[in-house]
Amino acid sequence: MDEKIRTELEAAAFRRLVEHFRQRTDVQNIDVMNLAGFCRNCLSKWYRAAAEERGIEMSYDEAREIVYGMPYEDWKAQHQPEATEEQKAAFHASQASRH
Description:
mainly alpha
């Protein structure tokens, strides 16, 4: 497979992942972090870093809007309840096990 096709496939997979996250608003970032070690915010940071590597200025908020499909504060208000104590404990345990 040549580099152009590989890049196109990776881009398509990324777009599909972002769309999946946009549709699954019931899945909270903290749950994804606890299970997979990354979340929508991580994707936003990686997107921004990729833009900056190519000389494209992009704020973190701009990158999050691309991933969330709306301003982060709007998404948070509509879809993100306060994390439960169990979610927070699992997050802290998962972070401690990575260091």
